[in-house]
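Extended Data, panel c. Modelled sequence:
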Amino acid sequence: MWEWNIKDHLIQGFDSTKDNFGVVQDNPKILIFNFVNGDTPVANWLHFNSLQYNESLDQILLSSRKLSEIFIIDHSTTTQEAALHTGGIYGKGGDLLYRWGNIADYNKGDYTDKTLDGQHYPHWIPDTFTDGGKIMLFNNGNTVGYSSLEIINQLVSSPGVYSYNNTSG
């Protein structure tokens, strides 16, 4: 059985005596532990509401409704590699290969810069369809007052290898 756990990929910038201390802005491929997206802290701080598997890329797409972000992780890792920062086809271990929706989540912007808000059902559009390979999702748009259907054109340098852009979503 394969396992990946977010606890292995957390960073915080408050307590330098802890192993996961670091500069959040310099580490967008791991998740800040104490970010609550302008909301009241709750036990279900991530609220993953969707998990989609892409067999051809061997990647998993996760949706965090509470953080207003989507994440892609590498399923090609072993369970041991999934707990690390190296390994798998893409060489990142269990770190995030891609994230989109809320740059405030890694201190690159603030609450007003987020592009997603309470999204649901992100999934890869099948390659045989128009916009194949892109990600489509329903964006609730709670703070802007309207919902939308979003099609995300992830920046890629090769199939399944995403380019980081610190100004997008």
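Residues 6-35+51-162 form one domain. This feature is highlighted in the accompanying rendering.
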